[in-house]
């Protein structure tokens, strides 16, 4: 059933008529697999974890999100193994990760040389273990899903930017996918 939202537009002379904008109806559905059917890999994509933004001035960026926009801003965390300092900004349904170079060999330093004002660096999507039902029982595949993702993606000719997963800012294994294989977007997959 579709619902219609009526929006009254304020105008001193009434130049704007009432707008009627349809509100999409969300429908959920489920499917079940037969007792012996398993489709696809043992991992799948989860929700968006964060959008990472490279910033030339971390303190200025923290102050902007906290003082101007009123966001919950975390503390600066140095990650020398990744060559960055990070700050997470809580957005309610997801997070923003502010990235700043840590050292001269930082990949973020190179990004900021090309993009002086900073900008979106990558997105992070959670990688989840799939659960299958067999004869009414839930079976949890005890597989390191980030490694399952790596193997599956390599079979699909998607390049991984490191030989193995590294521990990311949340203390969980992460991998990065080559942006040329992902529509121009650097994609980070984080195991959950």
Write the layout of secondary structure elements.
Blueprint: E1 3-7, E2 19-23, E3 43-54, H1 58-68, E4 72-73, E5 77-79, E6 84-90, E7 95-101, H2 107-114, E8 119-129, E9 131-134, E10 137-140, H3 145-155, E11 166-167, E12 173-177, E13 187-191
Parallel strand pairs: 3-7, 8-13
Antiparallel strand pairs: 1-2, 3-8, 4-6, 5-6, 6-7, 9-10, 11-12, 12-13
Question: Mind explaining what this structure looks like?
Answer:
The protein has 192 residues and is of the alpha+beta class. It has a single domain, classed as 2,3-Dihydroxybiphenyl 1,2-Dioxygenase, domain 1 (Roll). It is 16% helix and 38% strand. It has 3 helices and 13 strands, in the order E-E-E-H-E-E-E-E-H-E-E-E-H-E-E-E. The protein has helices at 58-68, 107-114, 145-155; strands at 3-7, 19-23, 43-54, 72-73, 77-79, 84-90, 95-101, 119-129, 131-134, 137-140, 166-167, 173-177, 187-191. Strands 3, 4, 5, 6, 7, 8, 11, 12 and 13 form a 9-stranded mixed beta sheet that branches. A hairpin with a 4-residue loop joins strand 6 (84-90) and strand 7. The longest helix has 11 residues, at 58-68. The model is unreliable at 1-39 and 137-143 (pLDDT under 50).
